[in-house]
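Hey, can you fold this one?
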Amino acid sequence: MLDSRKVYYDHEPGYKKLAEKGEKGWRVNGKSCNFKVCWNLAFAPGFLPKPKARVLDFGCGGGEFSIMLAKKGYDVIGTDFSATAIKLAKQNAQRAGLKNVRFYCQDALKPKLRQNFFQVIFSLNVLHCLIGKDRMTYLRNNGSLLKKRGLLVITSMVGLPKDRKLVKELGINKRTGIDKYHSRCFASAKQILSEFKRAGFKTIFFARMEARDSFPGDEDYFWILEKK
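Sure. Predicted structure:
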């Protein structure tokens, strides 16, 4: 189990409230992440390995995407910082009758997983929740866990919301992209691409996604990266 320290990327309080309402995973305005879009973008280009490959779902939440991968035949591990999220993920997997997916409560900045082990890592809506040096730590952790030429499938909010009132309301620093709550980094595409390169990745596929319901007017980007 994780210790009781409070950190800005701890979504445990949010997951507890969602679990009390009977939700099976993370929800914003009653809606989950658009996993179908992520799925179609990930598999359409033909870069991903065939089922039975070892896959990690970093920041898996209630395990909804992990379960989709397991149903396709992949050997899946999902991790999340929230103990409640992992509890929900295990319950969801049990209901689905799956045995090829395992869930662990871990800190993605200090993962206790086998290095050079995974063929693919999925990082959906995690990067924009990290700030400062933690972003590079996280990306480099992904690199250390991937096998040579392994793939990182990653999504992130990019740039400031187009709604100026929202930027003011959130108190987003236009230079750093960090909000006044110290909970999000609205990094530019240029900054993110630089971080990928410094972490030892090269982009092999890119697409724009639908804007998030929680921040109207901002953009979500999707990348498939290859470990150099």
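The first helix runs from residue 12 to 20. Let me know if you want another pass with a different chain boundary.
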